[in-house]
Amino acid sequence: MRKEPDFADLLAEPPVADRMSKLADRLKALATMKETKERRTEIDLALAQNRWGLRILAIRVLGAWGGPRNKAWLREKADQPMLRHPWRYPKRTPGRWEAIETQAAQRAIAPHVTREDAAWLLNRHLADWANGGTLLPMLGALAPHLPRERIEAAYQDPAQRESLLWLCFHVRNLSDRLYWMRRLATLHEPPPLAGRLLLHAEADALKSPSPDARKPA
């Protein structure tokens, strides 16, 4: 029986018109297969290519496979800072693709985060909230485990108050959400839009009251 060509075989083919399509199809197929040493070697080869699209597909394969080793790789990639959101870069520039890779890793790691990742996710958001929208669903899923002392530290740090404000606004199941928003809105120099976002949050709370409207004991 003829062996199905792997990524290395396809890469070695002459650069004909459909070679990139074959390489992409191979990576998509790997995502549906069980990880083996040989298949992981294919992914490592794909990650070493200078074609951004192939690397992003390889990142998605690691997310599909999961496991401690792949999760650690994805977390390191997802933790890379983005100077700006991918779509704020000019098209076909290295900075744009690097940011897209970071976002791809953030999406790929999402099914694998646990409460042990809560502090890392919170720190990542507070350090780069404007480019961290991909993290918000994970922060919502882990809201009960976000360390309160880290949230207090962000409140005390003027450089992180805007990040905290947007965390409170978007993560609606955050413990004591309205309490934090009110504290931010009543500062001598509140973060931009703090008062307006608080009004929206309070209106939502009136529609469906929740314990987080109370000041914590």
What's a concise summary of this model?
The chain is mostly helical and 217 residues long.
Fold and architecture overview:
59% of the residues lie in helices and 0% in strands. It has helices at residues 7-12, 19-30, 37-47, 52-65, 68-78, 94-109, 118-127, 136-141, 148-156, 161-170, 177-185, 194-207. Helix 4 (52-65) packs parallel to helix 6, helix 5 packs across helix 6 (94-109) and helix 10 packs antiparallel against helix 11 (177-185). The relative contact order is 0.07. The model is unreliable at 211-217 (pLDDT under 50).
Features of the shown structure:
217 residues; mainly alpha; 12 helices; 0% strand; elongated; disordered C terminus
Count every beta strand, where a strand is a DSSP E run of 2 or more residues. 0
Shape: elongated
Tell me the Rg in angstroms. Answer: 21 Å
Strand portion, in percent? Answer: under 5%
Number of helices: 12
- Provide the structure class: mainly alpha
- CA-to-CA gap between the ends? 70 Å
> Can you tell me the residue ranges where pLDDT is under 50 for at least 5 consecutive residues?
211-217
Largest pleated sheet:
none
Order of helices and strands: HHHHHHHHHHHH
User: Averaging pLDDT over every residue, what do you get?
Assistant: 89
